[in-house]
Amino acid sequence: MKRRLFKYITILLFASLTLPTAVIAQDSLAASTDSLQVAATTIVEKVTEEAPATLDSGNTAWMIVATVLVLMMTVPGLALFYGGLVRQKNVLSVIMQCLFITGVISILWIAFGYSWVFGTSFMESDNALGAIIGGWDKVFLCSLTLDTLTAGNIPEILFALFQCMFAVITPALIIGAFAERIKFSGYVVFIILWSIIVYNPMAHWVWGGGWLQEMGAIDFAGGTVVHINAGISALVMAVMLGRRKGYRTIGHPFTPHNIPFVFIGTALLWLGWFGFNAGSGLAADGLAANAFLVTHLATCVAAVVWMSLEWFLYKKPTIVGFCTGAVAGLVAITPAAGTVDVLGAFAIGGISALVCFFMVAYMKPKLKYDDSLDAFGVHGVGGIVGSILTGVFATQAITGTEGVQGALYGDWNQLWIQVVATGASVVYSAVLTFILFFIVNKTIGLRVSKEEEAVGLDISQHGEFAYSEDE
Amino acid sequence: MKKIEAIIRKSKFNEVRAALHEADIDFLSWWDVKGQGSARQGLIFRGIAYDVNAIDRIYISFVVRNINVEKSIDAILKAAYTGESGDGRIFVSSIEQSIRIRTGDHGDESLYDKDEDK
């Protein structure tokens, strides 16, 4: 009873903290509509001038590579990263969850996800649903041919596949929050519904021409859509699902079962992230090179800061600490990669490591929620930090003389827009995830029984051992 | 015949094995074990420092003739010593019978090679 009360209070608090930002969002939306219409007309003019477009083989080649890199982040990158952090009896369950997402979300994405996010029929026909989803005009990529080009003059089918990898990795990030205790059948239903109801609309808002994009929110490679979205859902799931058995009673954290796995996973994430960020400009140009540079720099700074903190506070620098710091830096630079320079990368990397360290090492034990692998502590918090700092460090050195700039360079409005976009993502994914949890938990159940949890999910859910002792 | 068992630090195992070899004890078995005692081991996970008292140890067991008991114990004592808490224990117990499977030798004869050893 007490526990349930605590849950509801947490959620209420959360909602009351974040609702005002959503309300304010409406106002600034109206304010920025004018400037946006001007921008929209210039874009239209540009497009008509450039026609007929021909395929750019350089951009296309780079985007094919970038797409491969982003797939590599989920399988095997994230599967190994999370797999190494869990206990030995649960490593296969995490790998299976990553594999399953890759398979089923890809199918859903090609079937209708892409159309919902990047379709245009609802917006063109002034359908009210256009505010949430794009339309049905690109179902099964039916209207795309080999010659259909999109921004950067790359084939749109390639763009659809590139975006598919983003749709795949986002729900995979949430796995870290409920690892070691989720029931596979409930997980399957939850993840499919989450992708359809939470991911698709938000991706449409930010990238597909929805209201956040129109408002001028900068999200270069997915800070709000991917990391805040997944991180906040992770927090809701971790709180709602309850703690793992023994989490508070054994007196210390559960230890990672294979730290070299964590290292390999981090290395693959780091590598793949260059496709994620440097590919998000959809072109092989200077902006991509800058995204590459700042991504790498922010990651290195965050990793070294995290390691130094542990070294300073506990006398020993750890491998898991370095890897966690690296991921925090990668997450934080994601929304900013297309707008900040080296200075911004330094600051975003350093600040994200400090804030994530504080959340993971101090706030989590204080608040006593069990976010198994810190999906919220790293992705949610890192995403929020990155998204807001984008509004501080965006510079016209990167965005061009007409481009946006952040508070550091005198434009406080952009910072405000970033805060609103961040707040809106937090509220949307928290509320929707809560509803989804409630529905799936009541119908199928999301948590394994105590006995199943004790023997481990590998045996109880999948009937396999990771490390057999037979000869 | 006595059975000598010792629980020692993992880091000291190779030294103990070499010391026993010096003392002409070349027959022994060992296991990786976990043990708890007063010693604690500090660990760090993502900015949270904690310590555990379950620590990896090596468990050695071998059977010797009575004349070899003292020098075996001396060898282990010398090689496994650090002076810190957690050095381990040695246990000695009596063995009723010992049989070498290949030859069927019983008792003391089963514990050494007649041709080589004294």
Automatic annotation (TrEMBL), chain B:
InterPro entries reported for this sequence: N-reg_PII, N-reg_PII-like_a/b, N-reg_PII/ATP_PRibTrfase_C, N-reg_PII_CS
SUPFAM superfamilies (UniProt xref): GlnB-like
Protein name stated in the entry: P-II family nitrogen regulator
Pfam families: P-II
Family of the protein in this entry: Belongs to the P(II) protein family.
